[in-house]
Amino acid sequence: MLAAAFIATVGIAVPVAADSMSSTSYKIDTSVAAPFGGQAGSSSYKMVIGGGEALNGSGGSASYKLSHGYVAQLQQSIQLNLTTASIALGTLTPGISKTGTVSAQVLTDAPSYSLSLAQNNNLTSGANTIPAISTGTIASPVAWVEGTTKGLGFTLTAAPSLPGKWGTAGNYGYAAIPSSTTTLYTRSGYTGGAQDTITVQPRVDISPSQLVGSYTNTITITATTIP
After folding, report:
1. Assessment of whether the complete model's pTM goes beyond 0.70
2. pLDDT per position in the chain (227 positions), as tens?
3. Who's near 162: CB < 8 A, 6+ residues apart?
4. Is 78 in contact with 108 (CB distance < 8 Å)?
């Protein structure tokens, strides 16, 4: 089963207020900034809003010194959807691998983002396990040799600017799924508003001595914004 982990940040603009400040030497009417603020919402969201004319810099005289300005920057957010919540690879026959497919759909307003994944454990049935493939890492995937490669691995088959280390159709590179969260794909120079699709394919084969059972594990895919 593949479970998506969602990471999103929402920045809230703080309302500002107008006022007038004065003494016998000066008067500053801050209402010229024409600030506004308030709240908007529905059953699905709540948003605090505020704004006004941009101010920056400092001012002063022999009687006073004023530093002023307000700059608001909303933090970026990211949305991750998986095209399927689980993958069933069916009955395995030693020497004949099975492959599944899941696509991670990413939408963000950040200039860059990364995808990472981790598994909670090897494929497990009671006290028995199917290990990860013995060679191949995310940093250095290796070719799958049908009938020889044993265990669970994965590859990337589609992504914007798919890194060459993942190979091409018919010659993909495979990596073991790590137990700790590890970045598998990074995109820089992203243009917000367009949905990216990154396709992940797990693949498994077993040895003749593998005990019969229903083997499962959980893989978490996480999307993270990069400022």
Report:
1. no
2. 222 332 221 222 223 333 455 566 655 554 444 555 566 666 666 666 655 555 555 666 777 766 666 555 557 889 999 999 889 898 999 999 999 999 999 999 899 999 999 999 999 999 999 999 999 999 999 999 999 999 999 999 999 999 999 999 999 999 999 999 999 999 998 877 789 999 999 999 999 999 999 999 999 999 999 98
3. 156
4. yes
CATH class of the domain at 2-7+77-226: mainly beta
Return residue ranges of the chain for CATH 2.60.40: 2-7+77-226
